[in-house]
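Possible regression after last week's pipeline update?

I re-ran a chain I had predicted before the update to compare outputs. Posting the input and the new output here so someone can diff against the archived version. Not blocking, just want to make sure nothing changed silently.
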Amino acid sequence: MTILISAAFDSGNIRPTAIADDQVTLEIEHDKDSDFYQWFHFRALGVRGRPVSYAIANAGGSAYPGGWENYHPCWSDDRVTWRRVADSAYADGVLRFTHEAAGDAVWFAYFAPYSMERHHDLVAQVAEMPGVTLTSLGRTLDGREMDCLTLGEGPLKLWLYARQHPGESMAEWWMEGALEALTDAADPIARSLRQKATFHIVPNMNPDGSYRGHLRTNAAGVNLNREWHEPTPERSPEVLCVRNAMDATGVDFAMDVHGDEAIAAVFLAGFEGIPSLTGTQSALYARYQDALVARTPDFQKAKGYGTTPKGRANLAMSTNQLAERFGCVAMTLEMPFKDNDDLPDPEYGWSPERSKQLARDCLGALHDIIGAL
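New output (post-update):
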């Protein structure tokens, strides 16, 4: 039977260029109107009991070629449980992997996908919980609603938002974990947080890019995390409507949830380079990092991005813009596409389950410092 490759579904992305017996050659499609590409998600049909070799021939030209080193693709035969392909290697600009499926079909992805259908299920389920309000902050270029879930009755204004870069699907798995925790009536940390603060949560900042199978951009090919200084309805309505809502509520604490292609660790990026940086902001950010280190061995401070000198921050990025705009504590949380090298799991790598658990730990760390906010 001839192997059939398809990606014509929610978040799908791949283009087969050659299929010969058990050898499949593929290329990842660019984000629309953009040079970015790295996310892939496709189905292979007609593969039962066949050790099929796959080659992504244009991996070397992707946005972050360093992300392929020591990387293992995700695979699933039921689209529920996602494991890592053991036989995988990157060399000469090509990602090669071999997999033998037990059934007729198998799905592969850069990371365990978080579909727009699951997004709608999550929003619907959380919106039914006591004390939760669901609103739309605006619409995307493709006409999708910008869902925002609000809960809690405290005076502090806390914003959590994820998936500005749609291919970073671990960010919405994190959001699922955070929302489950915050609406858990039996969780004392959640109950205390809701008493002290009001949470505004945007689970998916880029629903158009998510559905289209983009790595980093929206329907106009725009990187939303470079739009926070001057968002426009034509290029970045997603950022514009969220920033307008933040202006209306104020912001005391903000977390922007992401994934990093190359660094095999969980880490935070801060706002050290903003012009108006205060000692109080710096101290609170340091306290949060220390609290998270104490909460989970999945988080560390040794690996991450460099620190920008004061006054040289890129205010087009949300963390910097919010810290400067509101004088608040803001941060970018990064999770790996690969695995956490300090605590590896060869079968699953970094996974949806670990992303969700990290969300609970992040909320616990927030509770540890919230009195200082």
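Follow-up from reviewer: compared with the archived run. The chain has two domains: 4-109, 116-372. Marking as no regression found.
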